[in-house]
Design brief:
The structure is a homodimer. Chain A is an alpha+beta fold and about 200 residues long. The first copy, chain A, contains ten helices and four strands. The first copy, chain A, has a four-stranded mixed beta sheet with strand order 2-1-3-4, with helices on both faces. In chain A, helix 5 packs antiparallel against helix 6. The radius of gyration of chain A is 16 Å and the shape is globular. The N and C termini of chain A lie close together (about 10 Å). The interface between A and B is medium-sized, with 21 and 21 residues.
């Protein structure tokens, strides 16, 4: 029997990706599912739908509800109060590139959680190489080599390929979860259901 | 102490309103919350956002996921397999008008559930007065007087006012739930949380 696995697709700028990223590893471990962190970019996918920014900006009533909904969710799962980064959404391309470097090494998932906390707990800009460097240093990773690897042509191409794969899998928002049998779940509120599916079909 | 209450806002054409409508009364009774069924029309609200049809039609990847997601949800909560009505979305104005008449009488909530089942289990058109009449007859309600009351100017105005109130409350989708302290919850997947809120703040 192989280990059940679940792909966790997220964009660092995505608000609902934050609680999902903070919760997924503990919940998956508890039920014996292996999680693959897969950062991608929502921008090209939104653009293909004709959106030039986050739907939470395009549709103000939806946006207001989203911030309030996340306040309630964070309280429920004992995350610190959510802060709205300025500007919103943040440009997440640099963080995603660094994450791809890290996820091939032991510090990748910790880096992802730290980026989400920096942005949504501390209100920091995640498009700033200094923010990235400070997070890496705290994880005892020397920033210079990693930041250089992050912006190499190979790594840039890797993120493009990952985003194209997301689109081919039918992703249209984040977070999303996919299983080896091609089941797609969308939203932080589908995390538990996705894990149960992965467990059953794994 | 007053009875805690929750307003349940729905559009008959809304797919996620279906499982919410089938679940809400039993869940609310179990925790001692009084539910008010409040049909409204999403059309004018979508129009104000620049949408001419359901976002599930406008954004095909989102639509595909919605139908699959609802298959999974119906299986999970033991509802019959979901059928896609033709056309989708259905024009829900007649059903909403009849529901408003019924909700002032004892048969209103049963009527609402029967309309959702006719549409999403049996694939019937809910814009057809004959469908409405058949549902009413099964509930031992004589159709003619009710259908006449439904399309009276007073009742038409009542539905417009209800839709305007929804918009003022910040509703942007269905189902939604609102509490007397003006908390707004959006989506079938927020029903349990909304009930818990109503219970605490009631």
């Amino acid at each position: 029997m192989t280990t059940p696995t679940l792909d966790f697709w997220f964009d660092f700028a995505s608000t609902y990706s934050y609680p999902a990223a903070m919760r997924v590893q503990a919940l998956a471990s508890a039920v014996g599912v292996k999680v693959n962190f897969r950062p991608f970019l929502l921008g090209p996918i939104f653009k293909a739908q004709g959106w030039t920014t986050s739907p939470f900006n395009l549709f103000p009533a939806k946006g207001r509800n989203m911030w309030r909904d996340l306040e309630r969710i964070c309280a429920e799962v004992s995350l610190p109060p959510m802060r709205r980064p300025e500007p919103f959404p943040q440009n997440s391309i640099l963080a995603a590139r660094v994450a791809l470097v890290g996820l091939a090494q032991p510090w990748g998932e910790d880096f992802c959680r730290a980026v989400f906390s920096a942005q949504f707990t501390d209100g920091q800009r995640i498009d700033d190489p200094e923010t990235m460097g400070a997070i890496l240093s705290k994880l005892d990773v020397a920033p210079a080599a990693v930041l250089a690897a992050a912006v190499s042509n190979d790594n840039k191409a890797r993120l493009r390929v990952q985003t194209e794969e997301a689109q081919k899998l039918g992703l249209f928002g984040a977070p999303s979860f996919t299983t080896p049998d091609a089941e797609l779940f969308w939203g932080n509120d589908r995390l538990e259901q996705a894990l149960a599916w992965a467990k059953r079909s794994g």
